[in-house]
Amino acid sequence: MKLTRNIVEMPARLMSSSLAMFLAAGALLYHVWQKYTEQIHIWYALKGVSPMAWAYQLANPEIFAKNFPGGYEVFSKSSFMYIYPLAKAVLGLDPSSILTSVVALEIVALSLAVYLLSRLLFPESATAAHVALALLVIASYARSMNIGWFGAPYFKGVYYNAADVFRILAVIMALKRRYVWSGVCIAAAFSCHPLMGIHAGIFVFTMTLFSRPARQDWMNAAAGAVLCVILSAVWMISVYDSQNISNTGISAERWFELTRLFGGHFYPITAGFFSRNSKDFIGLISLTLLLFHYIRRRSGASALFDRQMMAGAVALIFVSVAGVFISEYTTIPLLAKLTLFRASELYIIIALVYAVNGLWRDIESGKAVCVAIAAVILLSPFYLAPGLPVIFSVLLVSPVFLRVYRGASPTDLFLALLAGFAIVLPLFYAVYYANQSPGDFIARVEAGYIAPVRAGYYMSGAALVGMLIGVPAFAVKKWADVNLVPLAVFVLLLASPSTYLNDRLMDSGNQAKGRDFMQAQLWVKHNTPPDALFMKDPALFHPSYNPGWREYSQRPSFGTMYEWTVLPALYVSDSDILGEGLRRLGEFGIDLDEYINMKTDQNRFRLLQAKAHALFYQFDDSWRLRLARKYGIDYFVLQRDMIVKPSHLPVVFENNHIVIVSSGRPPTQNNQHSQNPGSPSGDK
Question: For strand 635-639 and strand 534-536, is the pairing parallel, antiparallel, or unpaired?
């Protein structure tokens, strides 16, 4: 009997072992890294705007003298991006060879930062809870419901995660009353991504105002704030031109026309974040419900931290709401550029810290109903987008309605009102946006309350696995008084990121296109003059916008639709580059104002791309040769299955998806091969 009991207790002891948790987490982080980097070279070959292309242009400006700027200049504004030229200068490492290592650094650093914040705020929580939080932050849909749909998590070897790491460290330093170091971390976040640094500053400033120790030690707090401002100002003065901020030469009207044409992140109301595409907004309400549910339960020293964190979170909510209205109604480009609603990204991370630790406490409680609901919520972000079905959050906090009925505190009343709003909102959307059909109404009800990517698969699978693992775990608890339920949930948690990570992989068709396009780029790198100018299909593999070319060819590009219209206005704010881009668009005979003046704000840019995509193949060789003479184009890159009129220009390369033809212009340099003929590291 004693032996049996020891065997039963062994998993529970493993669960309480930090070493065992770290080993499991380490193995899973390695798996996460493998999945994020499995197709990264192919992805960049297609999508472009990569660290490699920027580093190549920085190191070889003479080769790219004829290149149309592709928005890569924005990388020079981020301190983190200089890891690539430094690795080249100091270690002799090619940017493409360290890309996957930089992704590993991002994953480890962000996981560790989130883990440390969680440990500081919830020292009483099990290690498994902190590990669960890190997994949700780096490998789930939990962060994808930010206002504006900024990609998160986004592990592509660029600056976003570095900025997140520094601002999480800034919060940790502020909670520890190390305000000077907090200011340094905010400045570091600002140097990686100014807007993300500003949002961190707002959060830390607000939480510090609500800290009695900070008010008593105000000189130290003030020193941190002053140092932060000085360091941030020095960085901004050093790397930013005035036109990047003021849009010199681009009228406000034109700037808004072009940025609204592309839509995307800048205009969440127009994009339907709060209306027709509301499931992410509902998910954000669900997370907020969990935050307010769990943050009100604690007392003592933890309550002091909670008061500061709540103050910062509320500040981020107000900033996000203000940003939403500013984005829609401002006539000043600078205010729109601030994208204040991006503060929701930091808010989500803070809210997840409280939600995950609270859910884990409920899972450890042993109360069957509470455990079941909390486990479903915790696992949902790995399977569903957005990650937190509101129906389960409402069920979890539903006892608040009884407390309000019996006469509760203002906090309970607020939570009840928020829960009621979360119940009514999805139904309102389902009624308002249903297309007069019962099927559409039911689908919208499902999307609103459960928000399924694969709801049937997830719910049935969760029920089956819950029975197979949960029932024996409860039986053991009843028999031996050993709670194995958290272990069962943790095992499911470790297995869950694979579903999310596999969903992110390109399908076989896009992989084949990417490989062929990458093969074409590598051939060009080894077999054409270094300064040869290439004009590729300006909307290659439409409907996606793919400005990729310079990544592996290391050759200048004539530009793409995205680079001619959106990037010069949105990110570079250079009137000369925009003017040249619009002139190149004019070579297609396209009237840009026709698309700007369309009544709908949806898909206008894709329609514009489709037009240029089709015209590129309808024009004959005489059109290509005219452009070659006018702009000095040496080669044209075509999508094989789109060719309508066969070209009589010399074919220099072809594969299943790509054809490259020469314009016949004499090369400006002798044909020479690259000194490094190998393929990018990590892609064979």
Answer: parallel
pLDDT at 262: 79
Sign of torsion, CA 380 385 387 388? Answer: negative
Rounded to an integer, what is the distance from CA 399 to the centroid of its chain?
35
CB 45 within 8 A of CB 518: yes
Q: Is the peptide bond before 153 cis (omega within 30 degrees of 0)?
A: yes
pLDDT of residue 548: 87
With a cut of 50, which residues of the chain have pLDDT below it?
1, 3-4, 7-8, 452-453, 669-684
Report yes or no: 658 and 648 within 8 Å, Cβ to Cβ: no
Beta carbons of 298 and 292 less than 8 angstroms apart: no
Task: Give the side-chain half-sphere CA count within 13 A for 168.
Answer: 29
What's the pLDDT at 547? 78
What lies within 8 Å, CB to CB, of 433 at 6+ separation is 275, 276, 444
Residue 520, CA distances (Å) to 66, 158, 524, 652 in order: 20, 25, 6, 10
Q: Give CA separation, 222 vs 110, 165, 640, in Å.
A: 28, 23, 62
Identify the residue whose tokens are 């439409």.
542
- Using CA atoms, how far apart are residues 96 and 551, in angstroms rounded to an integer? 9
pLDDT value of residue 383: 85
- By CB atoms closer than 10 A (0-12, 13-18, 19+), residue 7 is exposed
Q: Is the peptide bond before 486 cis (omega within 30 degrees of 0)?
A: no
Which residue bears the tokens 């660029």? Answer: 158
- Express each pLDDT in 50-67 by its tens digit: 999 999 998 889 999 899
Whole-angstrom Cα distance, residue 50 to residue 43?
A: 10
652 and 665 in contact (C-beta within 8 Å)?
A: no
Q: Three-state SS for 114?
A: helix
Question: Which two tokens mark 26?
Answer: 């380490």
- The confidence score (pLDDT) of residue 670 equals 41
Of the candidates 300, 169, 285, 176, the one whose C-alpha atom is nearest the C-alpha of residue 228 is 169
Q: Which amino acid is at 545?
A: Y
Sheet of 534-536, strand order: 534-536, 635-639, 658-662, 651-654
SS3 letters for 568-636?
HHHHHCCHHHHHHHHHHHHCCCCCHHHHHCCCCCCCHHHHHHHHHHHHHHHCCHHHHHHHHHHHCCCEE
Q: What does the pLDDT read at residue 295?
A: 87
Q: Residues 169, 211: contact at Cβ < 8 Å?
A: no
Cite the DSSP H helix spans in 87-126: 95-121
Quick one: pLDDT at residue 165? 98
Which two structure tokens, joined as six digits, stand for 383? 């399977």
Q: Which of 404, 389, 372, 390 is nearest to 454 (CA)?
A: 389
What is the Cα–Cα distance from 196 to 163, expressed in whole angstroms? 7
At position 447, the amino acid (one-letter code) is A
How far, in Å, CA of 261 to CA of 255, rounded? 10
